[in-house]
Amino acid sequence: MIVEQIWTGNSYRNFNYLIACEETGEALAVDPLDHGKCLAAAKDRGWEITQIVNTHEHGDHTGGNAAMIAATSAQLLAHENAKDRIPGIDRGLAAGDVIKVGKTVELEALDTPGHTMSHVCLLSHSDYPALFCGDTLFNAGAGNCHNGGHPNELYETFAAQLDQLGEATSIYPGHDYITNNLEFTLDREPDNQQAKRLLDDVRDQDPGQALVTTLGLEREINTFFRLQSPSVIARLREAFPDLPDEPDAKTVFLRLRELRNSW
Ligand SMILES: [Zn+2]
Ligand SMILES: [Zn+2]
Q: Would the pLDDT of 116 be above 90?
């Protein structure tokens, strides 16, 4: 499996992806908003785009579908419940569905509500464990729930699905928000040395050559995975004096999500 991360350079800071089979050259495009850059990258590598997956229904993820399909006749895949919101879906996805690309790539659809209620992530079952997580999980952060989502479901998705994945899983999010998110981590947990070091490393990075994190690293630098951290809880109590002595993980997650909304 070969992954190409495509930096759109737009104001929403979207990342698009091509996932290709190295044997056949077939490729799947994830949220190809910048269809021009995606098509150029595929041409460059000699790949044929045969499928598109939209992680969810927001326009900055679906806006390239029509042009991409016109250029490639690719099949469009998205959450089965997104059919009313994404025109032209050829295959509706449910939890556990497998998407094959060529001979070597198998991606499992995870049903990951929270950012919206019809959001899928893709988990590779190839030699290279990787998660394409749209707007559910970002580097050092979590998706918002302002446009059709719910924080309770986002917590359940993190706890029951994302946090169960292996340390080595590479994380490929839908946007480049790492700098802001690390600053939020450090606002919540000022003694997080790993987050401090990483922020120094990525502050001036070229998003066209962005650091790809792993779930193991996210557990160290992403506040939304650090729900048991004594310093996260202590600092949270400054904002929410009613926080119980030993708050459960869900309470901490929801309060962090609430703070992040206005941060
Ligand atoms: Zn979104
Ligand atoms: Zn987005």
A: yes
Amino acid sitting at position 79: H
Q: How far is the CA of 156 from the centre of ligand 2 (A)?
A: 20
- Predicted local distance difference test score (pLDDT) of residue 126: 74
Residue 172 φ then ψ, to 5°: -120, 95
Residue 92 to residues 19, 60, 79, 103, 120, Cα–Cα distance (Å): 19, 20, 5, 22, 11
Largest CA distance in the chain: 58
Task: State the distance from the centre of ligand 2 to the C-alpha of 188, rounded, in angstroms.
Answer: 24
> Angle, nearest 10°, between helix axes 249-261 and 230-239?
50
Q: How confident is the model at residue 18 (pLDDT cuts 50, 70, 90)?
A: very high
pLDDT at site 127: 77
Distance of CA 14 from the midpoint of ligand 1 (Å): 10
For residue 56, the CA-to-ligand 1 centroid distance in Å is 7
- 153: helix, strand or coil: helix
- What are the tens digits of pLDDT across the range 20-63? 999 999 999 999 999 999 999 999 999 999 999 999 999 999 99
Query: How far is ligand 2, taken at its centre, from the CA of residue 147, in Å?
Result: 10
Q: What is the pLDDT, as a whole number, of residue 65? A: 98
Cross-strand partners of 105: 101
Q: What are phi and psi of 138, to 5 degrees?
A: -115, 165
Ligand nearest, relative to CA of residue 147:
1
> If you measure from the C-alpha of residue 18 to the centroid of ligand 2, how many angstroms do you get, rounded to a whole number?
17
Which of 220, 199, 219, 222 is CA-nearest to residue 211? 199
Q: How far is the CA of 108 from the centre of ligand 2 (A)?
A: 21
Under 8 Å between Cβ of 199 and 186: yes
Q: Three-class SS of residue 83?
A: coil
